[in-house]
Amino acid sequence: MLDTAIFAGGCFWCMVQPFDTRPGIEKVVSGYTGGHVPNPTYEEVCSHTTGHTEAVKITFNPQIISYEELVEIYWQQTDPTDASGQFQDRGDSYRPVIFVKDEHQRKIAETSKKNLSEQKIFDKPIVTQIENAKPFYEAEDYHQDFYKKNPLRHQIEELGGRQQFKDTQWKK
pTM value? Predict the structure, then answer.
């Protein structure tokens, strides 16, 4: 039986590979969620008028990888102290959010966030939001599997601050 998880952590291009390459992950889809406009386009989301956030929807086998493990992977792809976007991507459509589908996921996400805060890894507070999942709209095809289709551009995006942050903050 498969399950799903939805995470927003800045540009969805950079959020696919860290999950896609793990055992137990069946599929990672780039898309938009959290807004008030049905079936938004990339251009509409970029206009910051739809309320949507770029996110990834992960279909996983909980017998192989747990939701707890996915949340841990998520934290290490983001700057959880930056509510205004992630790295070079700024604005609400890039804000960090864990979208939970039920109370089980909410409890895991909230416990993990509390534990991360108590670890004192960061000088600033953990501001990543935990919100109820809303309809998820798949992004256009050219956004799917971006790291495979456009490896050079993906690498450039990663070098926009994300990779350096991961190397310095999360490798400690």
Answer: 0.94
